Structure formats: C-alpha cells, structure tokens
Amino acid sequence: MANSSSPGCVLLAATMALGVVLLASPAESARAFFVFGDSLVDNGNNNYLMSTARADSPPYGIDYPTHQATGRFSNGLNIPDIISEHLGAEPTLPYLSPELHGEKLLVGANFASAGVGILNDTGIQFIEMVRMSRQLQYFHEYQGKLRAVVGASQATQIVSRALVLITLGGNDFVNNYFFMPFSLRSLQFSLPNYVRYLISEYKKILVRLYDMGARRVLVTGTGPLGCAPAQLARSRGGECDAGLMRAAELFNPQLSRALQELNARYGSGTFIAANTFRIHFDFISDPAAYGFQTATEACCGQGPHNGIGLCTALSNVCTDRDQYVFWDAYHPTERANRIIVSQFMTGSLDYISPLNLGTALHIDAALMD
Hints:
By secondary structure, the chain is of the alpha/beta class. It has helices at residues 79-87, 132-150, 152-161, 170-177, 184-188, 191-211, 229-232, 242-266, 276-285, 334-346, 357-368; strands at residues 8-9, 22-23, 33-37, 108-110, 163-167, 217-220, 271-274, 294-298, 300-301, 316-317, 324-326, 352-353. Belongs to the 'GDSL' lipolytic enzyme family.
C-alpha cells in the first residue's frame, strides 16, 4: 500500500449541525487545513520526488474535476479534498508544489507522502518520500513562510485555529512488518510489542504537532488492512489476511487510548479519534447497504480481485466507479471516501470521539466569531 483551498472562512449558522459555509478571501480566512501522513491523504507531493509510490499518470484522476492524474491515489477526490469541501475551501496544495506561495499559504498545506509510516524505515522500497520527520520539518518551514506573509502574530493564530488531519499506521504493517517473511521488524518484535512500539512513536509525532501549534487534530486509525484487494488476491479462497487484521485490531484501540491520554494532558477534543476500521468494515461487510456492488474487487488493477500490481494504463478499469469500494488494490474510490468523511462529520461516538468533526467545526466557528 503506497499509503496514497482557495482560502476559506467557515461561518456556521447556529441552528444547523454542520452550518452554512461561506467563502472568504485569503486575507479573511479563519481556518487553514494541514494534512500529514501517507498515500490515503497525499495530494501529490510524490510527484516531485524520485519515488515509485506515485499516482501521477492515468487512469488515476479519471473522475477528478480536470480528469487528469494529480498524484492522488483515487479515481477522483480523496479524503482531504472532501474535508476541504466541508470547510468551504479548495483543496490544500502539496507542500512541494511551486504554486504554494503568497496568499495560498493561508489556505494551509498538504505534507503527506505516499509510502510513509510512523517509523522512518517503513516503505524504504519506494526509494524517496517525505518521511514524518521531514513532514514536520516542512511544517516548521511553512510557518516561517507564513510569518513572512502575514506577520508572527497572525501566523500563530492561523496555525492554532487550523484543522489538522493525520493518517498513519497502515504502511508500518503492510510495507514493513508484514512486507516479507522474516522482516527485520518481525524478527525484532512480536506483533503486540511492535504495536506498542508504533504507538509510543506515534505519540511523539502528535506531541510534536501540538508543540508546533496544532490545537484541533483529526487522527485516523487503520482500516481493515487484511481485506484490501491486494491481500485478498494473495490469500487462499479470497479471505482477509488474518495477520493484518490482527494488527489493525491491536493498533486501533491502543491508538484510541493514546489519544485519550493526550487529551487529558492538552484538553478534550484536541485530538479527535476516527474509527476508520469500523467505518471501512461497515461497507466491506455489507456493500449493498451503501449502494456498492463489490467491496472485494478493485476497480483498477489486474489478476484476482484486480489486486495484483499497480493501477496503470494497461490495467482493467471498471466503467462505474461508484459501484466499487476500492479504486485500486488499497485505496478507496471517491464515493467510498465521501462515506468515510460523512462519518467524520456526523458520526456517533462509535465512529469518532470525543466529538465528531461537524460538532468541532461548529464549536470552533462560534469561538472565532
């Protein structure tokens, strides 16, 4: 798994749960959006790297507004794009994009890079990527650029009022611990001990984000990794991979507890835990209930379940992407991404806690008035 705005001010009507979103000029923007993580949220940073984890050629982007591949691991919009819609803003630019300068900085930035994990040795087979240590370094660099545009005081306010999204963990299993039999990490750690190590390292990343000014951080867990078409293609009888499912079942509750501990330290709701395992598993276990035809076949690929190899111009490509949960061997379609984000926005505590994103935006907008 290469795990793949025009400035806006969110004004929410008090009588509506999610509010009414109005666009503002960059100088008036009250909320920026920052994205960190892997290919599930990468908007194209790897386009600028010598990386094999790329989505900058067709058929990626077939349903994107421009119908062009942008570096998003999707047929169309990805999770950050759809969150940006709820913010009333255009998608954040990749930090490495030469277009990210001047007033565009007020919108925020996407630092995510396909292939990365919590650990720096995750995804080394992809050659070049923006590892988490570098993503955080770029965030520091970004803040310097922002101060040059708006001044130190306003830059600090923009960062503290921003929404932050971070998505990590899947690659640490798929492209590290389980990448090959007898991987170095699997020889070093039992799976439970490896998960504990990942959580301890993830907490350091989250604390660093807080220390750099982040005050509203949406943290997603891992989905049901073993049920991706890439894993179904390798299993006997097309069953979900038991090892990866066990990894997700260990990782997600421990991540949730870690976020509770951080909220006890920094304030409730600073870190919002999204139960992406539950969200994904709902439509994987009963795709018809969500209007999908299949949750076991990728739209783009080849081999069993279209889960072998990369999605390329030579791959099989389905004609109706809205019928598929998975776009390629690991990544959701735009329609699946919209269901995921809808649960972020309005879901119950079973899906997102200690409050959903719609409620958080409503509270924050009231405080900004």
